[in-house]
Design brief:
Blueprint (H helix, E strand, L loop, with lengths): L1 H11 L4 H18 L3 H19 L1
Helix pairs in contact: 2-3
Length: about 55
C-alpha cells in the first residue's frame, strides 16, 4: 500500500509544486503584513522563478 501511494504522489505532484505553495504562502503573508504590497510580491515571484531556473540546471 505504501509503495502505490508514493508512486501516485510522484505522478500527481508537479516538480515545482512546493515552490508554488511556498510562494503563495509568502504572497498571503506579504498581503497581510504590508496591505497588498505588489512590488514585494513581484520581487518574491521573480526571485522564486530565478531560483527554480538555477535548481533545474
Amino acid at each position: 500500500m505504501k509503495r502505490t501511494s508514493i508512486r501516485s504522489l510522484k505522478i500527481c505532484t508537479h516538480p515545482f509544486e512546493p515552490y508554488i505553495k511556498i510562494w503563495l504562502g509568502i504572497c498571503i503573508l506579504v498581503q497581510i503584513e504590508s496591505n497588498c504590497n505588489r512590488r514585494m510580491i513581484i520581487q518574491s515571484y521573480t526571485y522564486m522563478l530565478n531560483y527554480m531556473h538555477v535548481e533545474r540546471k
